[in-house]
Amino acid sequence: MRFAIYVPCYGPYGDPALLAELAVAAEESGWDGFFLWDHLVAAPPVADPWVTLGAVAARTSRIVFGPMIVPLPRRRPWKLAAEAGTLQRLSGGRLRLGLGMGVPRDYERFGEAEPAAVRAGRFREGVELLERFFAGERVRHEGVHFQVSDVGFAPVRVPMWTSGLWPRKAPFLSAARVDGLFPIIRDGDGFVLPTPEQAGRIKADFVASGGRADADLALWGSGVQPAAALVPAYAEAGVTWLLQDAWRRSVAELRAVVAAGPPR
User: Fold this and answer.
1) What are phi and psi of 179, to 5 degrees?
2) Phi and psi for 136 in degrees, rounded to 5?
3) Could you tell me the pTM of the whole model?
4) Pair 23, 264: CB distance under 8 Å
5) Of 66, 79, 118, 222, which is the most exposed, with the fewest CB atoms less than 10 Å away?
């Protein structure tokens, strides 16, 4: 089991210098990962996760990091492949690329109110292109949403995690092409940490959708940290990462969580 800090990229956490500082503190306190939200329309200031994660890569040496999650349907897969490949080389292989559908406002406020089915199609096609770009393949692609005419990037290993609201089908899009799953359970205005029993069902659904049985399963529950005694039950259910977040914590409160270290 590995443990990570999960931080918004806006409001009190919209300062990239603060985010890089928190990542350094997390590494020093024994945390295994540091992940950032990826939003555009949010309480300002909004920190771009890619610029910020470049600073995290440069200032840390061990901790795993990444965006959780990149709204792939609003990105160009080739630009994302270049960014992720660059960051992976800069960090020595510590990037995990979280991919999902994103929140509606980040589309609608910019005149991109596509139906969910269209975004799902862009997601599937985008994951396929990312996989081929990362493999170093010369890509020729004539798809419904994207066209690529004989383009190749240098090969680089970038583990991809898919995400979305469970029990909907979105978290399992392109399950066969990814290395992990980051499911989210919403409860009103908040989010819920899945129980070990729910985690087991989520993992079974992922595998039934074509995902690997040994893929990562990362859980998050909006400030809920399971007791250390429950960690074995989560591990037995297939969970490999537990994320502790800063969504409803002040900066001072998060600093205390980081300094306390993970619940080993």
Assistant:
1) -105, 0
2) 80, 15
3) 0.96
4) no
5) 79
